Fold each of these.
Amino acid sequence: MACKLKLTESNNLYKEACRLIPGGVLGIRRPYNFVVGEYPVFFASAKGGRVIDADGNEYIDMLCAYGPIIIGHREEEIDEAVIEQIREKGFCFSLTQKTQNKLAKKMRELIPCAEKSLFVKTGSDAATAAIRIARAYTSRSKVARCGYHGWHDWCVEVKAGIPQKLYEDVYEFHYNDLTSLEAIMSKHGSETAAIIITPIGHPLSAKVEEPAPGFLKGVKEIAERYGAVLIFDEIRSGFRVSLGGAQEIYGVIPDLALFGKAMGNGYPISAVVGKAEIMDVAKDKVFISSTFFPNSLGQIAALKTIEIMERDNILTKLREKGSKFCAEVEEIIGAGGIPCELSGAPLMPFITFIKDKEKRYKELRNEFYTQLIRRGLFLQPYHHGYIAYRHTDEDLKRAAAAIAESLEELKKTAY
C-alpha cells in the first residue's frame, strides 16, 4: 500500500494563510475540494507535465491548473515571447498595443463565429460581458443557462451575498434535454435575451457528456425561433477539442462564444467572439472596460500558444496521447469490478463513481483519490482532468498504473 504523503510545509503554509486570507486559499483550491489531509494545499514549482508541492513531492499533473495548461508548465517559447514584450516594449499603457489586432485577426481565422472579438481576462469576465451584450442587443432581460459560467452575480451557484433580483431572470435547463429548454422558452421566450450553454457538458462531480445527436442543433433552432442570442461557453472546450472550438467539431455555429483557459497556456486571457452585428453593441451601447483588459502579455502568450499548436500539430498529438491513455484506463476499469466509469475521453478524462442508495460511492471516491495522490497522480475528485502535450508516454503509463493500483486497493478496503 502506498504511504501517506509528508505534507508538513504545505499544512504549515495553509495554517498561516488562514490567518491572513479568508479560507486560506480561494474557492475551488480549498482542501475540501480534494481529500482533506491527503492532498497538498500549496505547490512550489512545475515543469512540463509535472508539478512539485511545497514539501518536495512530485506529481504527474493531470488537472493542469483546471485547464489552462495545454502545452506544458513553464513552456520556454511562450515565456520568452512574454519576457521579450516586457523588456523591449512594455505591456500596461493608457492606450492599446497592436497585438490586440493581430490576435483578433487570428481568432477570426480560426473560430467559425468570430467576426469580431473582445478580449478580457477570465472566463467569468467573458461570460458576463456576453450576457450584457446579448441583453443590450435584444432589449430583453431573461437568460436560459446550462453549465458552469463563472462566479459573477447572475450565474454563481452559491447565492450568499447576492440579492435575488440579480439572478431572478436566469433559468437553468439540463444538458442533452431539449424538453427542459422548451419548457423555459415556451414560458419566457419572448423575454429571453440569451441561451448560454457549454457545448460539451461538464457538471461538477458528474461525468463529462458529449452532445447527443441533434441536441446542439435543436438548441440553436429554439434560439432562432424565439429570437434569443445563442452563446457557446467554450472556456474549457475552446483551443482544446479544436482550435475552432466545439462549434467547429459539431458543426453548430452560435451567435457568440467564450474562449479562455487553454488560449494562453496559463497566462490570464479570455475572449468574447461572435457575429459583428451583435458584438457591435459594445461600441457605444454597452460599457465593457478594465484597466487591465488591454494588457498585452496575455495576448502575446495566446498568439505564441496558437502558433505552436498550429506549427506542431499539438491537438492531433494530444488526441493520440489521450486516446491511448483512455483506452488503457477503460480496460483497467472494465477488469476491476469497481462501480466507476470513465468519461471525457480523450482530452478531458474523468473517473466518477456510480451513485448507489447507500451512498457508498462517496467512500469509494474518497479512497480512490487518496490512493491516486499517494502514488503521485494529481487529479481532483469533483472535476475532470486534462491531457497536456508535455505529458510523456512514461507519465501516462505511470498514471494508468496508479489508477490500476488504486482500484485494486479499493477491492481490499471496500469489499
Note: The chain has a mean pLDDT of 97.
Amino acid sequence: MSINLETTIEAYLKAKNLSQGTRDEYRATLRKWKQWRTDTPLVEIDRKTVRDFLGWVYENAIEEEGTNPGRTANKARENLRAVMSWAWEQDLIESLPRFPRPRPQRVVAGRHYLTKAELNALYFATFQMKRPRGWDAPFTIGRYWRCALVLFFNYGMDTGTFWGTLNCHKLLLWRHVSWDRVSLDGQRKERCRWGWLFYKRVKTGKTFHRPMNRIVYAHLKSIRPEEPDPNAPVVLGGGTRPNIRFQQLCELVGIGPKTDVETGEQKPWVLKDLRKTCATYYDAHVPESSIEILGHSMGGVTYRHYAHRDPLAFKAIMTIPQPAAFKALARGIDGRCPCCRRAF
C-alpha cells in the first residue's frame, strides 16, 4: 500500500511537538493539496508536481483576492518541504525532490536578519577597520572580526562566547579548539577532517561539540598563534562594547537600521542579529536544523532525551552554503574577492 501526503503529514505532526497554530498551518496546506489534486502517492511527488501545486496556490490566492499571494505560496512551500525532508529522513522516499525558488512576497514583518550581500559587505569592510589604541595582538583587528563573522554565521554563538563582558560568560578558549578528526568528548560517531569546537551557551549553559567545516577551519587557522596559550581567548577585538564596533561596521558599509513594522521604530543592528541570521539560513538549508544548531529549548521528554539529533546538526554544518566573501581565505586569496579577484 502506497503512502500518500495526508498520511505523511499526520505522522509528521504526531512525531513533532508543534504548537496548535503551526499544526493548523500544516493542515491548511493539506486541504489545499486535496483541493488541487486527489490522492497522490508520496513517491510520485517530484519537482514538477511541487511547482504545479505552488503555482495553483498562488493563482488561487489571487482569485480569492488575497492581500499577499506570494507569502501564501511560500508558506505552503515551507510546510511541504519540511514534511518531505522528514519523510526522506525516515526512508519513506528515496530522494528529496528539488523545490522551486520562493516567490516574491510583500514583507509583513520587520526583517531581523542580514542578507548574504550584507554579510559580504561586512566581511569586506573589516579590512578597513582601524587599529585600536594600545592594540598589541599578533594580527590586525579586522582578521579577528572576519573570523567572528564566520563563527556567528555557522554556529549562531552568543556574543559573550567571543567577548565576555560579564563573569558568567564562558569564553571560547584555544583549549576548546581541536584539530583532530575525533570530537573532544570522544562520544561522537562522526569523524570530521577539519576538527571540532567546544563551547557553552551563555543563557542555558548547554554544552556543544560541533564539527568545523572548511571555511571555519581556514579562519581559525588564520588567527592561531604559533604557540597558542590554552587558556587564552580565541577571538580578540571586541573591546568593552562589541555592539558599538559592530554598528560602526554597519555604518561603514551603509547598512541602515532595522525597522519595526508595528511601531515604525528604527533600531540599530546588534550582534545578536547575527544569531538570528544563522537560524534563518539553517532553516532555509535544512528545515528545523536551527533548533539543534542554536540550542533552542525543545518540548517533549522523548525528544529532549532520546532523539539523536547530532547527525542532523553535522550534516547541516558541513553543507550549509557560505557567503561568497567567506570562501576567499579557504581558496588562498585572502584580501581579494573570490569571483573577480579584486582587492577588498
Note: The radius of gyration is 22 Å.
Amino acid sequence: MQDLEEIKIIVTGFGGQGIIMAGRIIGKAASLVDGNESTMVQSYGPESRGGACNAQIIISANPIHYPYVDQADILICMSQGGYEKYIEQLKAQGTLIADEDLVNPADGDFDAYHVPATRMAEALGQKMMANIIMIGFLTAVIPAVSVNAARETIRHSVPRGTEELNLKAFAKGYDHGLAVLKGREKKAAGQTGAIA
C-alpha cells in the first residue's frame, strides 16, 4: 500500500485517445493493487469519438466522501481543448503533464511536464497507446500509484494479445519520466553549484 495523502487527478483529451481507460487503470491500480481508496468519474462530450472527455480520479488512504474533482493536484492533458477547458481546475502549484505535440500550455503557477506521448506511441507502431505512455510517465514523476500496481492493472485491462506491447509503452513512458527527473536534478545541482 502506498502511503499517501489524497491526490486528485484529471485526465483529459478527446474521445478515441483512451482517456477513460487511463483513468480506470490509475484508479484500479491505486485501489485493487496498492490498497488505497479511489473513485473515478467520467465525462464525455456530445460525440463519443473526437469529442472532449475527461476522467476524474481521487486516490486516498482514507474514505472518499465526494467523487468529483473541483481542484486537481495533477492535470494530464492530451488535447488543446481539454487543456483550455480544465486548466482553471488545476490548483496553484499543481502538476501539469501535457502531450507536447498536442497541447501548447501558457505559463502558469504550476509545475509543467511536456511528454511526446503520441510521438512515442507512433514509434511503437500504435498511436492508441499514448494513454499508456502517459500512465508510465505519471508513475515515474508522481507517487500516485506504484510501478507494480500500474503494470499489473495494465496487463489485466488492455485487450487480450496486446499486453506485452502495452507494457512496453508503459515502460517507455516510465523511463522517459525518470530521465526528465534526472535532468531536472542535474540542472538544479548545476544552478546550486554556480551560486555557491
Note: The chain has one domain: 7-195.
Amino acid sequence: MDGRRYSGVAIALHWLIAAAIIANVALAWIWPHLADERVRPAIDVHKSIGVTVLGLAVMRLLWRATHAPPPLPNRYQRWELALSHATHGLLYLLIFAMPLSGWIMDSAWKDAATHPMFWFGLFQWPRLGFIMALDLDTRNWLHDLFGAAHVWGSYLLYGLFALHVGGAFKHQLLDGDAELQRMWFAR
C-alpha cells in the first residue's frame, strides 16, 4: 500500500488547497445574504484565500514536478484512467485560473486604486499595475470579462469536484479499492 500512497507533502497541499477552495465557495454563496457592512470583509477574505490558493498551487505544482504520484491500480478501466487524468488536469488548471482571474478582475475594478486589498488584514497585497494603468473603459471591460470567466470557472469547478469525489468514493465503496487511503494522513 505504501507504494500507492502520496507523499506527506502532497497530501498536506491537497487538503490545504481543498479546504481553502471549499471556504471560498462558501463565502461566495454566503455574501449575497450578509448585511451590507459585512459583504466587503467577506469579499476581502475571499480574495486573501484566493491568493493563498495560488501560492499553494505553485508549491504543489513544483512538488508534483519533482515527485511522481503513485501509480493507479492496473485493474482500472481505460476510460477511468482517461477521466481521472482529464479531471486532475482540469483541476490543476482551475487552481491557477480561478485565483488569477480573480486577481485580474480585482485589479481592473474601478475603485481598486482607492480601496487597497490586504492579505488577511496583515499587509497590502499588490494589484496588477499594468492593468490598473489602463484606461477606465478597458479596465471595466476586463473586469467584466474576467468576472465572467471567474463565474464560469466556478461552475466547471463544481462539476470537476463532483467527478473527483465521486470517482474516489466509487473506487473506495463500490470497487473495494483503498483509494481514499492514498490521499489521507493516517495509514
Note: Helices lie at 8-30, 36-66, 78-108, 129-132, 136-174.
